[in-house]
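Think of the structure tokens as a kind of shorthand, similar to the way a musician reads notation: each symbol stands for something richer, in this case the local conformation of the backbone. In the example below we present two proteins back to back. Begin with the first one, reading the sequence and then the tokens, and try to describe in your own words what changes along the chain.
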Amino acid sequence: MEDRMQIIKSQKNNRITIGIIPGHYATNHSHVNFYVDMTSVKTSMKTAKAAAEVLAGEFSNHFVDTVICLEGTEILGAFLAETLAQSGINQNKDINVITPEMNAVNQMIFRDNTQKMIWGKRVLLLISSASTGKTINRAIECLQYYSGELVAIGSIFSAINEVHGMEIKSLFTEQDLPKYDNFAQNACPLCKQGIKVDALINSFGYSKL
């Protein structure tokens, strides 16, 4: 698969890149025609810091108490919190960076020691990829349960513009991947054409079939 990878540079900072591999892939929610590799943004200190600076520019007018990191965005989230604290309206106020736990039925939960970072707090939700919005919706339900206030949503890549009327600020969008598409599992045209699934994908990466 890797020999088919194409590198896409961010229009906002060409040091920030993702890789895309065309094919037929299955996620937990849908089938997609591209695997979007965001490994460098999630793991490279320099890339994550550059990405955080771009996203911080989108959120500079938001007062944020806590950044909730989903799908392996903790490094990006830490740099984002640091940049917001230094250059945003937080005025050097500390920002918490936390990740929810997933229980046996795949619900997001927070233990007692981290709930105080959600109750009555202004929360920025950070996710690696938003293709259908289902993960974001699940996170919003979790925030409502813990009485947190969602003030902003950020992502590395998003194929959708908003969720519940709130705009998703992304480093990469469908404009960067104009042929990207996702389909319900029972309505996938690639399956109907008899094209086999290349790999199972999630926020950790891919597993070839």
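Once you have a description of the first chain, move to the second and do the same.
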Amino acid sequence: MKIKELPLEIRPREKALLHGIESLSDEELLAVIIGSGVKGASAIDISRNLLGTYLTLPSLANTNLFSLENTFGLSKIMSLKLLATFEFHNRLNSPFYQYQYSINNSQDIYSRYRYLENSFQEVLAIIMLNKKKVIIKEKILYKGTNDNVSISAKEIYMELILSKCYYYVLIHNHPDGTPFPSDDDIYVTDMLEELTKTLNIKMLDHIIIYPGGYFSIKQNIKSKEDAKEKI
């Protein structure tokens, strides 16, 4: 049976969109990666054949290009795509990626994002951490002009919810060399901090990086009066 002939709720892609990728079986995950079938066999059929041939996922992950491309329904390109997926898994489980990086203070954040001192455009990044302040996710959210970057509270809100973090840090740079936060920087910091409190997610800091150093809004500005003095 072709995948498009299956009820929507049990098609691998639709099921993943409705219930999350973790809801898929091994067979369905393979089908999503394979994408489309060939004449006489759907992506599900090819996945089922692969698991029937190699018996276990570890066995399949340890195969080679020659073996895969001789499987019915798999081209050389699709075989490479599967091997690339398995290699990602291997790398994620390597000691290099298993190291847990924690954030203890603003200097740690500055050291990690110091390269932004040399950026000619304004960049906004977010770090999401667990209760032990270990990084679970970080992402460059925007790259703006040489003196402006757009911030979407909704997008930040969604990133925090989906990451299931406990703390977060915002980082952005001032390519023009200004060492202090603008009125907008202060406003966004206060607005996001209050907004995310409703999620029980705490803002640790908002760091501004400029050529030659950094400025911690949370450490240096305790009130709007302080902000006026700094700016």
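Compare your description with these statements about the second chain. The longest helix spans residues 76-92.
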